[in-house]
Amino acid sequence: MLKDLIELTKPRILRLNLIAGFGGFWVASKWNIDWLLLVYMLIGTGLTMASSCVINNYWDRELDQKMERTRDRATATGRIKPIVVLWYGIGLGISGVVVLFTLVNPLTGWLGLLGMFVYIVIYTMWLKRSSTWSTSIGGISGAMPPVIGYCAVTNTVDAGAWILFMLLFLWQPPHFWSLSIRRVEEYRSAGFPLLPVVKGVNRTKLQMIPYVLLLIPSGLALYYYGHVGYVYLAISLVAGVIWLVHTLRGLAATDTDKWARTNFIISINYLMLTFLVMVLNTVWL
């Protein structure tokens, strides 16, 4: 049961977003680290994100039974009672918000609540079942971790916070669409009106381009406002161009599944590489 409870929090998603939260904190701190504050921020952010994922699993449990990727989840199989999952998610959320409000600062608490509201109410309960905009709008919640990390230090939403928000907001749709293109028939059978299901794979490939393209000036803006140095500038440009070129190649790709798999891998490596360099390069301004 413990393994199932952990899996309900979607550890892979948590890991990527906590890296982003760590990066936001480090950018704002510029290596003058309050280690205890960092720990509190990561715990609070992790708990609120985990809560959102657990409640998402609770709400989607019947639809998850229709997809190969999700049909073995504890909520889909009934290994854990729905009411237990619901209270588990609520408990995680309350704990996370309390940590952010009391041990970090009220601003991060409100940001955590905003992220939970968008993911649970706007994305999971509403748009995921009714609109192709679910992925884009839902990206607001996924963009909260680096902003929470940044605001844990600054206690204000300034240009740096907005740039970090844009980086994660723009990254998510092409990342998720790369996955959904490969599993489009599963999503169609489950009844999720994702972009590749409703508008088709080719339209989805086209719509990914502006998101990846706009990541490049977002990285430039982080350098322009003095949050990172030349190393980040160079690597973010190269990584962004590589991802953009591969995304553009998707328009002529004959093996869409292979292209989408590679694009998905590139998206993960882009996020991890740029945030790692972001952390390291704040000292070389």
Overall description:
Helices cover 80% and strands 0% of the residues. With 285 residues, the protein is mainly alpha-helical. It has one domain: Farnesyl Diphosphate Synthase. α7 (106-126) packs antiparallel against α8 (134-142), α8 packs across α10 and α10 (159-182) packs antiparallel against α13 (201-224).
Uncertain residue segments: none
Count of domain modules: 1
The main sheet comes to: none
CA distance, first residue to last residue: 48 Å
Shape category: flat
Mean pLDDT across all residues, rounded?
93
CATH architecture tag: Orthogonal Bundle
Count of DSSP H/I helices? 15
Question: Layout of helices and strands, plus pairs?
Answer:
Elements: H1 2-7, H2 11-29, H3 35-59, H4 61-64, H5 74-77, H6 82-104, H7 106-126, H8 134-142, H9 144-154, H10 159-182, H11 184-190, H12 195-198, H13 201-224, H14 230-249, H15 256-281
Please describe the structure with a list of short key phrases separated by commas or semicolons.
Farnesyl Diphosphate Synthase; single chain; 285 residues; flat; mainly alpha; 15 helices
Short description, anyone?
The chain has 285 residues and is mainly alpha-helical.
